Design the sequence.
């Protein structure tokens, strides 16, 4: 055994892990090698020095700091950490919450008519305030009409011109799908000014060529004042009804009669017989205006019967009629 | 490898049941040993305290993972050793070097008088010599000669072959013998 080989066993010798087979040759070498014996002694002293080193002590308060750090956090914080910190948990929960809230909102909306009504009101096009129509002769030029009108109707005629201008503007304007839809919808009317005096009945409502009967009926009860209209389905002429929804009728005209009451009864019978729906009636001193919706196939007979009741002068008639024809009929006499 | 002692087994059982007092007993029992390993490996008291705290918190969290086929102390030393070596080989190495330099400065006589009184020249030389060892030799000699672990325990804690432990320990002792020559009788 060389010195180098012998010194490789020093650790094992010092630690007492050397087997008898290994210890024999090493002992033999040490017995003959003074240098290795001295080296072994220095080796032992080094290990003794290490093992005799002063023990290290943890700093004061170390235990308390660890216990404090290991103390579980308050349950709300642990709950929040558990729920919201790990994103694999957080994301599905938040997505589910969004879906649940959305479904809840839709459910509440569907089961609450007031909400739906308010949404319709917000999406309704601007309400047009109309003045009542007095003498419907819009087919003639305005200058000619002025000449034909009696002087006591000048003021009312002015209002008519204003209204007809708005009607023409609306008809001439390009109508996109949304606007068409909005116009055909029962347009809400703004509450009339209290005490307002109406010279002639205003009869203008939504243009509902294909409006179902229910909808036509509802036009008499604007959304913004359903209760008021329900209590007053037939507004008297003196009632403040100058402000109405704006939607031009398909047909408007004047029926000159000798006996207005008889004509009104005749029109009522016609409405019943022909399956028409009267949606509004406004009586004034110089005439009564009736707004009604009549099926297209019944319209020719309606006109014929009007001719028997009096002199029917349509001021406007479309080239083609919708399924449900909206008629504004003014009975004078 | 030695199994758990009766005291260890009882303490582990209580720890698993979540007894706060059991964890306190564990910290009290092992605080100096764990802190000692950390200080001798890292060289900085602040670093050592931080790491030792991390060791105990890991034990607290992972006591259920303790299989019990080794002594509790060996498990603690294994965690401490692994954390020390990870830190020394990680990006925090520069800070650790600074800690070692602090220890070296203390050992070379630039420390305050209070420190000098507290630590003898021999102790300072010993710390410096240990700090100058390579990390893999240092941890073996610390565990063996300063903490008193057996070869088998060291091999288990460091997940090394027994022969590797023997070899590294012998090299570390030979290095220290040369560095501490003038303090030897």
Sequence:
């Amino acid at each position: 055994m060389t010195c180098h080989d012998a010194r490789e066993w020093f650790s094992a010798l010092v630690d007492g892990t050397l087997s008898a087979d290994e210890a024999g040759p090493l002992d033999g070498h040490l017995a003959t090698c003074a240098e290795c014996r001295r080296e072994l002694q220095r080796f032992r002293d080094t290990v003794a020095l290490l093992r005799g080193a002063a023990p290290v002590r943890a700093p004061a308060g170390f235990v308390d700091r660890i216990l404090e750090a290991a103390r579980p956090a308050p349950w709300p914080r642990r709950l929040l950490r558990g729920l919201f910190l790990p994103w694999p948990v957080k994301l599905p929960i938040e997505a589910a919450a969004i879906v649940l809230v959305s479904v809840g909102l839709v459910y509440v909306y569907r089961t609450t008519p007031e909400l739906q009504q308010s949404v319709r009101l917000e999406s309704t096009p601007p309400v047009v305030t109309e003045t009542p129509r007095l003498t419907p002769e819009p087919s003639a030029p305005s200058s000619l009409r002025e000449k034909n009108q009696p002087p006591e109707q000048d003021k009312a005629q002015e209002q008519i011109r204003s209204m007809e201008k708005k009607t023409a503007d609306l008809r001439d304007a390009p109508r996109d799908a949304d606007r068409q839809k909005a116009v055909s919808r029962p347009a809400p009317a703004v509450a009339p000014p209290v005490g307002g005096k109406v010279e002639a009945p205003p009869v203008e409502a939504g243009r509902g060529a294909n409006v179902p009967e229910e909808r036509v009926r509802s036009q008499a009860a604007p959304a913004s004042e359903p209760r008021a209209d329900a209590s007053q389905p037939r507004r008297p002429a003196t009632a403040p009804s100058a402000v109405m929804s704006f939607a031009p009728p398909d047909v408007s005209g004047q029926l000159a009669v000798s006996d207005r009451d008889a004509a009104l009864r005749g029109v009522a019978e016609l409405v019943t017989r022909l399956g028409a729906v009267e949606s509004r009636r406004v009586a004034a001193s110089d005439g009564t205006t009736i707004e009604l919706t009549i099926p297209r196939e019944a319209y020719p007979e309606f006109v014929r019967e009007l001719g028997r009741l009096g002199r029917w002068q349509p001021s406007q008639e479309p080239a083609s009629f919708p399924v449900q024809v909206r008629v504004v009929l003014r009975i004078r006499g | 490898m030695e199994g758990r002692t009766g005291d260890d087994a009882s303490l582990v059982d209580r720890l698993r049941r979540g007894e706060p007092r059991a964890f306190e007993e564990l910290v009290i029992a092992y605080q100096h040993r764990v802190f000692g390993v950390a200080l001798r490996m890292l060289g900085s008291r602040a670093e050592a305290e931080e790491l030792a705290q991390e060791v105990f918190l890991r034990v607290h969290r992972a006591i259920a993972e303790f299989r019990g086929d080794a002594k509790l102390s060996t498990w603690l030393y294994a965690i401490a050793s692994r954390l020390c070596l990870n830190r020394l080989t990680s990006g925090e190495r520069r800070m650790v070097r600074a800690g070692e330099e602090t220890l070296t400065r203390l050992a070379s006589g630039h420390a305050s008088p209070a420190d000098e009184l507290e630590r003898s020249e021999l102790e300072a030389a010993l710390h410096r010599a240990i700090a100058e060892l390579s990390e893999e030799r240092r941890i073996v000699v610390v565990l063996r000669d300063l903490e008193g672990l057996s070869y088998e325990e060291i091999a288990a804690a460091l997940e090394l072959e027994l022969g590797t432990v023997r070899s590294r320990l012998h090299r570390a002792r030979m290095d220290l013998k040369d560095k501490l020559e003038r303090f030897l009788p």
